[in-house]
From TrEMBL:
InterPro entries: NA-bd_OB-fold (IPR012340), RNA-binding_domain_S1_IF1 (IPR006196), TIF_IF1 (IPR004368)
Taxonomic path: Bacteria, Candidatus Nomuraibacteriota
Keyword set, alphabetical order: Initiation factor, Protein biosynthesis
Pfam family, one: eIF-1a
Domain S1-like residues, every copy: 1-73
Origin species: Candidatus Nomurabacteria bacterium RIFCSPHIGHO2_02_FULL_41_18
Protein name listed in UniProt: Translation initiation factor IF-1
């Protein structure tokens, strides 16, 4: 069982504003906020590139930390 299978996760959509070092990205969310996010392990493993202006799907941390980019739309 995966952690994502057990819990309800809150996903959101956003647009990449800025690419930062060590695969961190600054995202503009649909609800108007900005958040820092990193690439998920599957995206790193399959070498999926994320560029400025890409629309992405993000799993938000319930405690207010960084988000995790799980899909490029």
């Amino acid at each position: 069982m995966n952690k994502l299978d057990n819990e309800k996760v809150s996903t959101a959509k956003g647009v990449v504003l800025e690419a930062l070092p060590s695969t961190l990205f600054k995202l503009s969310m649909e609800d108007g906020g900005e958040v820092l996010a990193y690439l998920s392990g599957k995206m790193r493993m399959h070498r999926i590139k994320v560029l400025i202006g890409d629309k992405v799907e993000v799993i938000l941390d319930p405690y207010g930390g960084k988000g995790r980019i799980v899909k490029r739309l």
